[in-house]
Give the backbone structure.
Amino acid sequence: MNGISPKIGYMLQRDCLLEWRTILSNTMFGLEIKRKKNKEDKDYVEELLKKYDLYEFKDKYPSELSGGMRQRAALIRTLAVKPKILLLDEAFSALDYQTRIMVTNDIYNILRKEGITAIVVTHDISEGRCQSRHQVKYD
């Protein structure tokens, strides 16, 4: 197989939400790119927004949300394409420590509920130990 696998989702350090788009529009963005934006997928995204306490903010813009809410919106955007494996590259490093702990727990609970395997890159040893079953350390 050549190219990018549709089974893998990737979440960056920053949420990379588009400031001129609403939260609903941002969470649908990956589906638009894959040309998979249909009623079933929109319903799935709206269900994720409800499940993870962002539905009432769906018509807001990223600048109107807290850092943790923005990260959850970015995660929902990633989950919308239904990946089997999620790669998280320092996905919480842009948040302050207290928010990072809260969001990290929220996101790992979401991944467990959705049955998604995550590979997490972090430089925060305590974060890695608390959130993982398997750890790989590189010097």
